[in-house]
Amino acid sequence: MLLLVAQSFLVIVLVRARLTGAANASLAELCKVDSLRNVLPTNGTLLGINFLPESLTAQVTNTSVGSGTAAGPSVSVASDTYSYCNLTVHYVHAGTEDRTIRLRFALPAPSEYKSRFYVGGGGGYSLSSDATGGLAYGAASGATDAGYDAFDKSLDQVVLLANGTLDWDSVRMFSHQALGEMTLIAKQILPSLYGSDTDSSKVWTYFSGCSDGGRQAMSQVQRWGDLYDGVVAGAPAFRQGQQQILHLYPAAIEQQRGYFPPPCALQKIVNATIEACDPLDGRTDGVISRTDLCMSRFDLNSTVGKAYYCAAETSTSLGFGFGRRQLAAGSQTDSLPEQNGTVTVNDVMIARAVYEGVFTSSGKRAYLSWQVGSDLGDAEPTYDNATSSWVLNIPSTGGVFVRKFLERLELDNLDDEAFVNITNDQLVAWMDKGTREYYDTLQTTWPDLSTFANHGGKLIHYHGESDNSVPAASSVHYRQSVASSMHADLDSSQQEERLDEWYRLFLVPGGAHCSANSLQPNGPFPQAASLMQQIIDWVERDIAPAGLNATVTQGGSDEGKSVSLCRWPYRPVWSSENATDINAMGCEMPDTEARKSWTYAFEAFGYAVY
Ligand code: CA
Questions:
Q1: Which helix or strand (DSSP H or E) is residue 223 part of?
Q2: Helix extents (H) in 258-331
Q3: What's the CA-to-centroid distance between 407 and ligand 1, angstroms?
Q4: How far does the centroid of ligand 1 lie from the alpha carbon of residue 328, in Å?
């Protein structure tokens, strides 16, 4: 009996050995330094990339894959434990040997490997330092330090070599190159490691990220499109020349008009807008699923006179859109007094200007803004205990971009002095400078995605419609730019049809920045594991997502329910007969006025802003 068992075990081993060619049958065999060194491409194979084989280390490791690792901040996956090979290897760029680029790879056991490679995006100015995000999907995955210690530092910490001198190598590595090179290297190594058969030489390659991780995802589609099969890009923080300056716009408006609204008044305006616009989609559930209808049909002036009350509090808030490493510079501790009053004409004046977007002094549009009903956090002033008044609060998100990336000064934010005579034209000048300086790096809006599309790549792009950091309309504008750039000969509905074959955009009703929205708790949000399942199905099984799965997770009355989100340009609507059921959501082609509300021309600039 024992002999029989031993014999069948031997047969299994032989079969596996044949299936995987020269590759490794067990994790322990795979995870040996000598054999891993042997699969590194010979220097010269990948032009400009020279490995340092002596740097290679490998250990079998166990990990618990927890929340937030797969798709960026606030997007959770189920926790699970995996054994994997923790591989590190260093390389240099030929000719610049003084700068070492460190890679981490998490290699699953051969029995778990599904011929996949996965890259997870990071957050504000940060690359992901976690290489284990793919294990849940049977994928090898990686992380890169980009040659500037990105495992421990964010780009803004290293971007200046000295006052006046930018480290362009770090900017470019962060923006797209480090991730592209890592994936290029992984796709060279994995087939040799896991098998040399024709079948297993294919490495299905994925990227998923949100916020700057979404921008990183788009950077790979734009610049390394032939490497990736499936990309999930959430709320991409791209078009940084405009986006970072948008963070400064509310404070600039308040400074110009000499009025700093109590935060509680702004919150009341937001909540009253949500209440008024909620039913416009046909279902009264506390969610504005149609901000486009809200924009055309709701008058913010109707909130004047509404009473508000907020108790005194001490709070620490994070800078919007910033990763964990930025907490020190981006956070503020506020001691807020009790706020008790009614919404004034001046409060509404500020809210209206913020939602309208940025214009030059001659009335030319420079940028879009957050959808009406989005939280107005960037507009909230600071309370000055000495004078018992609300005063200027410059968000460091925008301030650090101006100081370090435009002015090249080692300063974390603009000070009040710099804002004394702030004009919209100054904001637009900063946007223009940011666009020029970072057009091929942080802007990340290259609109011709032919390489990716022709290679067979599939792109799921999603964005919370009530995002209060990166406006939802920013994503719509990019998709429109791709459509008109790649299919200039077609009309807009034909363009949509062609893009639909490989690029689908989903706006998430009520969704905030890369998370569900506490102000609209019945709003569903896509979950990381579900996003990955849908992109894998599209890539490997040719099952395109008709809608995007999203789940209500904020404790509203629809808690736990899932819904299939409408794909752009279709918009959600409930008929009066089915208005109680979240799943009865229909998807309609919006009327001309609603569509027009998503369409912008940035006439302030003498060039195309994609
Ligand atoms: Ca609603």
A1: helix 212-223
A2: 263-277, 291-297, 327-330
A3: 44
A4: 37
The DSSP symbol for 401 reads I
60-69, 95-104, 368-377, 571-580: which has the minimum mean pLDDT?
Answer: 60-69
Burial call 52-75: b when 16+ CB within 10 Å, e when fewer: beeebebeeeebebeebbbbbbbb
Q: Tell me how far the alpha carbon of residue 318 lies from the centroid of ligand 1, in angstroms.
A: 29
C-alpha 579 – ligand 1 centre gap (Å)? 9
Residue 277 contacts residue 597 (beta carbons within 8 Å): no
Cα separation, 148 vs 174, whole angstroms: 9
Catalytic residue flag (residue 8): no
210-228 pLDDT, tens digit per residue, is 999 999 999 999 999 999 9
Angle subtended at Cα 305 by Cα 304 and Cα 309, rounded to the nearest 5 degrees:
110
pLDDT at 5 over 70: no
467, 477, 515, 597: which is the annotated catalytic residue?
467
pLDDT digits (tens, 9 = 90+) for 362-403: 999 999 999 999 999 999 999 999 999 999 999 999 999 999
Query: Which residues touch 20 (CB under 8 Å, ≥6 apart)?
Result: 110, 194, 195, 197, 200
Residues around ligand 1, an ion, CB closer than 5 A: 278, 281, 283, 285, 287
State residue 25's pLDDT score.
84
- Establish whether 463 is a catalytic residue: no
Contacts of 126 (CB under 8 A, 6+ apart): 150, 154, 155, 212, 323, 324, 325, 326
With a threshold of 0.90, does the pTM exceed it? Answer: yes
Q: How far is CA 287 from the centre of its chain?
A: 22
- 74 CA → ligand 1 middle, Å: 23
Task: Given the residues 461, 463, 477, 513, select the one marked as catalytic.
Answer: 513
Cα 581 to averaged position of ligand 1 atoms, centre (Å): 11
Token duo for residue 276 = 């008024």
Residue (of 467, 561, 447, 557) closest to 507 by Cα position: 467
Q: Catalytic residue at 176?
A: no
Q: In the beta sheet, which residues pair with residue 403?
A: none
In tens, the pLDDT along 169-198 reads: 999 999 999 999 999 999 999 999 998 555
- Computed on alpha carbons and rounded to an integer, the radius of gyration of the chain in Å comes to 25
Q: In what helix (H) or strand (E) does residue 334 lie, and over which residues does it extend?
A: strand 332-336
**Average predicted confidence (pLDDT) for the chain:** 91
CA pair distance 384, 376, nearest whole angstrom? 20
pLDDT band at 333 (very low <50, low <70, confident <90, very high): low
